[in-house]
Task: inverse folding
């Protein structure tokens, strides 16, 4: 039993009052209710608590609070001045809180503000804490066997219970840990303190050691560990269908979540620094499942469902976990934890592989001769993942802190500082402490000693940003030193990726098999016949990993306990962009779409079976939520429809192919191809009759975005000065204070924890809402600052701009202004937030100083998805590589987008620009102008470009004056100005050698978008 470990963590969670931010000086220095918990009595009754006892191990645990606070508060925590909620001189005022990155300010004020100020504050808040204690089930807080579940309740449910207690006021999630530096929440600080307390206690700490520490025992040392696995992009890119693409992303997410869940169950959810597990759908799902299982087994008599709601199927099926996991562990458990992570990854992966094998082989009689332990199946699956990890100590040596701050012990201080600076490779320019900060530390130390007769110390938490960076660098070194690669496939390889052996049963008891033999295996009817769901088409040959991806949707109902139709709605079809067309346009287009679908089904009745297998789900939440949508967009693409088509004629030919001799098979294959070609032509005639100009399913759009320079944010390089984060009313009567405020703030452990948790607001709430409710898209992956989404030709540019502005916490660009952006947080203004999946509180964005870069692919339906995905990540990389030198000689990198149009003939149009330039381009295509005007502008620029910035306005004026479209047109002046603004912005932010090409490319892109968004329906010219 590891009771002492969990007690240390419970102390960490409750060492401060949870309502600390609402207290004044009379109450904020106390504890929460941990002393009243029965399971804590062995510590409390013997006076052996970290904040009471001078016992060696308890002093070690107490360091958790100091380390968690250190860099986040720096010397601010040592000053005697205070900031109170509803101060006596202004009772109507709440607290000024600041954005933890940008420093933007907003007022924090609770719903029950009046009730609080009209009561005796300390008595009122202590009564509230008592009510929170009463929320905990008696069995949970008294039975030592439930101590781990008690911790889970405190970590996961207490924040929600607190919000509910204050009239369901979710803004209490923003309560700051330190009112004098109010940029990180109390919940982040408590979680970080808890993680450090457990690591400082040690996993195997005993009750005897708490009572009496033996001198020869080593105290536990906390380590920052990072675990990762690969390959990632390769797994996602080897996709032929959108189902494969989604499945690859989701599998990575699921496996990472399983590793996190296993580690969280063993060491506590607080130990996971990144990703944060708080309110993660899969973690909540498994937590509720475990509690329910234990209740059924009559091992417990409580549940968490009042505070943890069952996540929706939509959220469970949206990927978001990264393949890199950071956590805080006791030194003695680092190796064991990393082995557990590796073992869990492989076990869960093989479980999924086994479920898919049973679904295909046992239920559907696919490749009947294939054995589950065959090298092309299990052998390949076992070699799929490469794992690597590293860990570094939090603090060099055994001395975590020092009070040697006065000048007369400077040598002692400098020796300790040098030890830490050298351990984490801190440069001379950045080394701690800079002269201004050290002067302020000493002044504050003297003042505190004089007024309160108390000293204070500095500790290793101030090096947090450098510790984290050194750990990342160490992981990169481990990764670069590896000699692992995917095993060589001796024999036919996958027709999708060219990687790995094609799944086959072998021949004559040997693994070696010829290309002809594998082709025959995959052509057999049981390999491609639909049996309620399409898997393979008879022409493709996949490796084991690709088979798992292709069939994942069939095993998910059992794996997650969700409905089959919900899974069909979790990924879009490549034709699902039609949803954007129907959303943007009016009823007439819906009627024409219905008529076209009816005509196709009438001519080819078996197409109805194909659509029924998809449960009529488009994989686009906006349209799938509509009860009136009768048909599936797949009906508008003749090629993809024929791929899944089964007719009596095709079935006869397929049976003949199986029975034919080898020399006759090629003739039958050609007959099948010819028959499908005839079907395709017939279906295309019907589609063209209803869509005589452009088919709305012709193009699919994919987007990949990634926050810029996130490692620099995590290291604290991009943070502002301390003065930007303190409340405007904080007054410190020390001469060195103004100089201290001019020092750049460091990234501390609690701020880091807050950032990890806060990013979930962006990835789990804001991005899904913008992608799937505001627009007709589908989020494939949303984790932290990463976005991978399917969007459409009609909305991609507006969606992209909205995501970028949301990431920065800028004003909501939408005409209805659904969100406010006070303090760089987005707050939903409508009253249907719960319905659309948004919490009723300000939601975190990365703030005004942050940027994101995107790659966008607009691909013709004939372009294979694997090629589009390869190009997608290239486009994202090129956007991040975009750079120019401004007028001050400063290098301006990233904050850009590259849009690529992949044509069916193999040509590619590439357009790259900064996001502010993209906004100007957007204005151009809002005009009701023909595409020809942009083609003419591109052509003229190629022949006669404007030679300088000053020549742009005359150039655009001359261009507009000479166009027939603008004769006697009042819009001519507006368009001329928009064109000039766009050219000017592009001129300033583009390298000279690329300028002409980029101007032409963006004009051609405008022409392309205008031309292909113009859909004529039957009867229109």
Result:
């Amino acid at each position: 039993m590891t009771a002492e470990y969990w007690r240390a963590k419970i102390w960490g969670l409750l060492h401060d009052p949870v309502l600390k931010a609402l207290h004044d000086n009379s109450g904020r220095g106390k504890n929460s209710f941990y002393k009243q918990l029965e399971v804590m009595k062995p510590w409390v009754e013997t006076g052996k608590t970290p904040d009471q006892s001078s016992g060696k191990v308890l002093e070690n645990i107490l360091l958790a609070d100091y380390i968690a606070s250190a860099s986040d508060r720096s010397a601010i925590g040592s000053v005697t001045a205070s900031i109170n909620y509803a101060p006596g001189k202004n009772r109507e005022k709440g607290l000024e809180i600041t954005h933890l990155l940008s420093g933007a300010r907003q007022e924090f004020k609770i719903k029950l503000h009046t009730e609080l100020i009209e009561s005796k504050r300390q008595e009122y808040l202590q009564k509230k804490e008592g009510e929170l204690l009463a929320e905990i089930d008696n069995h949970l807080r008294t039975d030592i066997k439930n101590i781990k579940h008690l911790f889970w309740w405190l970590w996961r449910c207490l924040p929600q219970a607190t919000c509910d207690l204050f009239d369901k006021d979710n803004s209490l999630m923003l309560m700051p840990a330190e009112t004098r530096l109010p940029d990180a929440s109390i919940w982040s600080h408590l979680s970080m303190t808890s993680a450090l307390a457990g690591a400082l206690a040690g996993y195997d700490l005993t009750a005897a050691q708490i009572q009496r520490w033996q001198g020869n025992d080593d105290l536990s040392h906390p380590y920052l560990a990072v675990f990762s696995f690969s390959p990632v992009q390769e797994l996602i890119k080897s996709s032929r269908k959108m189902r494969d693409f989604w499945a690859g992303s989701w599998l990575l997410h699921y496996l990472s979540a399983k590793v996190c869940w296993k580690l969280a169950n063993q060491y506590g959810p607080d130990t996971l620094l990144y990703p944060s597990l708080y309110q993660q759908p899969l973690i909540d799902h498994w937590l509720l499942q475990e509690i329910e299982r234990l209740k059924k087994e009559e091992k417990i008599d409580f549940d968490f469902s009042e505070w943890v709601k069952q996540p929706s199927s939509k959220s469970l099926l949206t990927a978001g976990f990264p393949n890199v996991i950071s956590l805080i562990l006791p030194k003695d458990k680092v190796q064991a934890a990393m082995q557990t992570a590796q073992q869990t990854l492989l076990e869960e992966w093989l479980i999924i592989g086994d479920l898919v094998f049973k679904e295909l082989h046992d239920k559907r009689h696919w490749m009947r001769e294939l054995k589950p332990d065959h090298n092309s199946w299990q052998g390949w699956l076992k070699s799929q993942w490469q794992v690597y990890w590293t860990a570094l100590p939090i603090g060099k040596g055994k001395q975590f802190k020092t009070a040697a701050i006065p000048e007369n012990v400077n040598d002692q201080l400098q020796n300790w500082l040098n030890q830490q600076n050298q351990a984490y490779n801190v440069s001379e320019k950045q080394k701690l402490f800079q002269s201004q900060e050290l002067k302020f530390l000493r002044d504050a130390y003297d003042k505190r000693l004089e007024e309160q007769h108390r000293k204070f110390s500095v500790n290793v938490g101030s090096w947090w940003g450098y510790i984290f960076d050194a750990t990342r660098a160490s992981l990169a070194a481990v990764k670069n030193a590896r000699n692992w690669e995917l095993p060589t496939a001796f024999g036919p390889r996958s027709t999708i990726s060219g990687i790995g052996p094609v799944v086959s049963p072998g021949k004559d008891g040997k693994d070696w098999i010829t290309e002809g033999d594998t082709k025959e295996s995959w052509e057999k009817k049981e390999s491609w016949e639909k049996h309620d769901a399409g898997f393979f088409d008879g022409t493709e040959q996949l490796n084991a990993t690709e088979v798992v991806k292709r069939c994942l949707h069939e095993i998910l109902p059992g794996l997650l306990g969700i409905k089959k139709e919900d899974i069909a709605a979790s990924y879009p079809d490549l034709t699902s962009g039609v949803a954007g067309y129907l959303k943007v346009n009016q009823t007439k287009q819906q009627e024409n779409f219905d008529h076209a679908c009816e005509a196709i089904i009438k001519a080819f009745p078996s197409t109805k079976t194909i659509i029924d297998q998809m449960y009529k789900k488009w994989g686009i939440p906006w349209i799938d939520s509509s009860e009136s949508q009768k048909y599936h967009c797949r009906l508008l693409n003749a090629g993809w429809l024929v791929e899944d088509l089964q007719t009596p004629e095709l079935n006869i030919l397929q049976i003949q192919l199986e029975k034919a001799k080898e020399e006759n098979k090629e003739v039958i294959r050609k007959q099948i191809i010819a028959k499908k070609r005839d079907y395709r032509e017939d279906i295309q005639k019907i589609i063209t009759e209803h869509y005589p100009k452009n088919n709305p399913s012709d193009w699919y759009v994919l987007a990949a975005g990634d926050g810029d320079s996130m490692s620099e944010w995590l290291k604290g390089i991009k943070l502002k000065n301390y003065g930007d984060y303190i409340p405007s009313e904080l007054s410190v009567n020390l001469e060195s204070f103004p100089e201290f405020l001019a020092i750049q703030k460091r990234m501390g452990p609690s701020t880091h924890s807050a950032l990890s948790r806060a990013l979930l607001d962006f990835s789990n709430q804001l991005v899904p809402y913008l992608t799937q409710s505001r627009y007709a898209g589908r989020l494939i992956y949303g984790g932290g600052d990463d976005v991978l989404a399917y969007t459409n030709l009609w909305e991609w540019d507006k969606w992209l701009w909205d995501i970028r502005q949301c990431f920065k916490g800028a004003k909501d660009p939408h005409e209805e202004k659904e969100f406010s952006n006070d303090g760089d947080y987005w707050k939903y203004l409508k009253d249907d937030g719960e319905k659309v999946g948004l919490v009723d509180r300000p939601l975190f964005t990365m703030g005004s100083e942050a940027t994101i870069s995107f790659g966008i692919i607009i691909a013709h339906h004939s372009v294979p998805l694997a090629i589009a995905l390869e190009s997608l990540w290239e486009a994202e990389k090129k956007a991040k590589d975009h750079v120019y030198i401004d007028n001050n000689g400063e290098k301006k990198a990233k904050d850009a987008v590259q849009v690529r149009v992949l044509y069916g003939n193999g040509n590619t149009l590439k357009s790259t620009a900064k996001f502010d330039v993209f906004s100007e381009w957007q204005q151009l295509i809002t005009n009701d102008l023909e595409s020809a005007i942009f083609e003419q502008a591109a052509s003229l620029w190629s022949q006669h470009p404007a030679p300088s910035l000053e020549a742009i306005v005359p150039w655009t004026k001359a261009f507009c004056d000479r166009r027939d479209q603008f004769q006697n047109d009042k819009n001519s002046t507006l368009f001329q100005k928009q064109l000039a603004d766009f050219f000017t912005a592009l001129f300033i932010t583009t390298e000279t050698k690329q300028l002409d090409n980029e101007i032409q490319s963006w004009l051609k892109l405008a022409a392309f978008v205008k031309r292909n968004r113009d859909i004529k329906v039957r009867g229109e010219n």
